[in-house]
Amino acid sequence: MARLQLTNVAKRYGNVEVLRDINLDIADGEFIVLVGPSGCGKSTLLRMIAGLEPISDGDFLIDGERMNDIRPRDRDIAMVFQSYALYPHMDVARNMGFSMEIRGAATAERTSRVAEAGRALGLDKLLERLPKALSGGQRQRVAMGRAIVRDPRAFLFDEPLSNLDAALRVEMRLEIARLHQRLGTTMVYVTHDQVEALTLADRIVVLNGGIIQQVGSPLELYERPANRFVAQFIGSPTMNVVAAAPDGASAVRLASGARILLPNHSGAGRAAELGIRPEHVDVVEPGTGDLDAVADVIEHLGSDTNVYTVVEGLGPIMARVRGNVPARSGDRLGLRIRPEHAHLFARDGRALAATGA
Amino acid sequence: MSAIRRPSPVLTFGKYAALAFYLIFALFPLYWLVKISITPDQLVFTEGTALWPSETTLGNFRTVIFHTDFLAYFGNSLIVSLGTAAATTLIAAGAGYAFSRFNFGGKRVIIALMLVTQMFPLLMIIAPIYKIVAAMGLLNSLTSLIVVYTAFNVPFATFLMQSFFDGIPKDLEEAAMMDGCTRFQALRKVIFPLTLPGLGATLGFVFTAAWSELLFALMLISRNEAMTFPVGLLTFVSKFSVDWGQMMAAGVLALIPSCLFFIFIQRYLVQGLTSGAVKG
User: Fold this and answer.
1) Potential cystine with A344: which of A47, A64, A271, B63 (Cβ 3.0-4.6 Å)?
2) Do A77 and B172 touch (CB under 8 A)?
3) How would you list the strands of the sheet with A77-80, edge to edge?
């Protein structure tokens, strides 16, 4: 159980600053997901929390105690590595019990804790196997078991699911969610997969270029992204963003000439871009919507249909429609933008006055 | 278009023929060594080119073992080679680990210097080495050979060990440190067991190199009691004759330690012990 606080934390390699002004207060028992494109510094931040990477500047506290110069072994934090990092010469049981072995715990206690964790993760029949005799999913479980057995103050996960196939990833994601519910321990989880972020997190931290872009609950980030980067990073399919110019106080004009009325949007006067999520674009009869478009590719997903279109003078716009759309490539379509879901961005990318849902 | 093309039989035959040729090329001298060693003296020249002598004998081996100083040479060689292998591997393991895991000032310079030492022909530095060893009063001692061999083998052995450490994922040490190990504990409990094949290969390589070294042994050792076996082998060459049979028998005996060693080590060389550590 731990509260993790990062104050003005920075990381430099020589003159290169990879993380800057990181301020984060992680509450006890919270599930925090660090998300961002590769090279954004998310793994480095996690490794700084773990103690595997020195902190160049700022303070890192666990439960009020400064941790900057405390060795990893004394931080009482467990970490699940992307590569699993199982000890290849030890069987599953010894892998899981290794931390207790190092701490000199009694063999009986160790055996019972390992057995317990093994049962919880469905590994009870594999305890005597070596890692090389396990499948990817089983190795992943052992890596988690190794962390659980210790009963640490906090768990760190570094892209733990990225080496698994799609089906297994969903299964393990659920398992991690259950684990958090059961243990209630603080967890910090790094991923580049926004679906993992949205499904697991109490709060998501979006990083880009070494800077925190926004911290918030999954819904907050989806509905009220702080800037264009977050808007396009969170949500799948990606939000459509097109150039827009103010046209009166409550409307914008797009490059195609279309005028979009935004009656409740106070930022229209300063807008440089308009963003609209595909699920907030309706496909209508040609000539009756805000935009006239030509269908490019239609993806039928069963429950939904992805309609990729091209709007003359504006470029590609994607719509995601519930159910089936009988359109075909090359068909003329109308697109209607739901104004209450439109996002406006200033020239520097910052979001203008949230629209609310 | 067929997706998969079977290799043509001609190509397959060619590959095996090339392999067979190479094997004969590599093993024939060895065969000849054994053949001569069991050929009675009087037949060496009369049946010299026959593939197998009409008569065989173990007499050469008996003579070499019981009536020459060969066993003493053999013992000296064993001491020198084991000493060199142990000292070199110890130094190389430490240096290789540091090169693999740490970044420190001058690392590149040190690596470059170590490479440079490998570029000099031995003949160029043999005289200075002799001077140094003489000044240290170590001439005619096995210690001098261990020191010199170690110095010459450490660079390559270090590169070898470094590549073994590079092959062990850094994650494993980090996981061990997260699990409560100090760096030294992580090294001892996790990295060391995984490096055993690497240590074995390095030991074997250095042992073999020291075992067959002639030039320095010839220069630094002149006393019969301190001779290693390659130098001792030369005592079979006298002014007017060469005792081929005995020389070959001694050669066969000298092969035994290396052969034993490689039989012992080969399963480690083939199989990577770290499989299963990380994904895949």
Assistant:
1) A271
2) no
3) A77-80, A154-158, A186-191, A31-35, A203-208, A211-216
- Name residue, tokens 């993380």: A19
A87–B273 CB contact, under 8 Å: no
Contacts of A52 in chain B (CB under 8 A): 174, 177-178
CB spacing of A85 vs B175 below 8 angstroms: yes
Class of domain A237-352: mainly beta
Superfamily (CATH H level) for A4-228: P-loop containing nucleotide triphosphate hydrolases (3.40.50.300)
In angstroms, the Cα distances linking A281 to A183, A216, A265, A291, A322 are 41, 25, 18, 10, 11
Nearest CA distance, A24 vs chain B (angstrom): 22
Q: Determine the pLDDT at residue B274.
A: 46
CATH number of B69-270: 1.10.3720.10
Cα A4–chain centre separation: 19
Task: Find chain B residues with C-beta within 8 A of A79's C-beta.
Answer: 174-175, 178
Query: What per-residue confidence (pLDDT) applies to A355?
Result: 46
- The domain spans of chain B are 9-57, 69-270
Q: Angle, to 10 degrees, between the axis of helix B59-67 and the axis of helix B70-101?
A: 80
CB contacts, 8 Å: B182 with chain A: 71, 73
Across the range B86-107, mean pLDDT stands at 93
Cα of A302 vs its chain's centroid, Å: 26
Other CB atoms within 10 Å distance of the CB of residue A32: 22
- Contact between residue A144 and residue A80 where contact means Cβ atoms under 8 Å apart: yes
pLDDT greater at residue B30 or residue B123: B30
**Which of B172, B174, B182 is opposite residue A87, by nearest beta carbon?**
B172
Q: List every span in chain A annotated with CATH 3.40.50.300.
A: 4-228
The pLDDT tens digits of the residues spanning B24-50 come to 999 999 999 999 899 888 887 887 678
Tell me what ipTM this predicted complex has.
0.85
- Identify the residue among B179, B184, B273 best suited for mutation to test binding to A, counting A beta carbons within 10 A and taking the highest: B179
pLDDT in tens, B216-258: 998 898 888 889 988 888 888 877 778 888 889 998 998 888 8
User: Chain A interface, mutation test: which of B178, B182, B199, B278, most A Cβ atoms within 10 Å?
Assistant: B178
Which 3 state secondary structure label does DSSP give B233? helix
Query: Could you tell me what percent of chain B has a pLDDT over 90?
Result: 42
Q: How many Cβ pairs within 8 Å bridge chains A and B? A: 84
Rounded distance, CA A242 to CA A276, Å?
Answer: 9
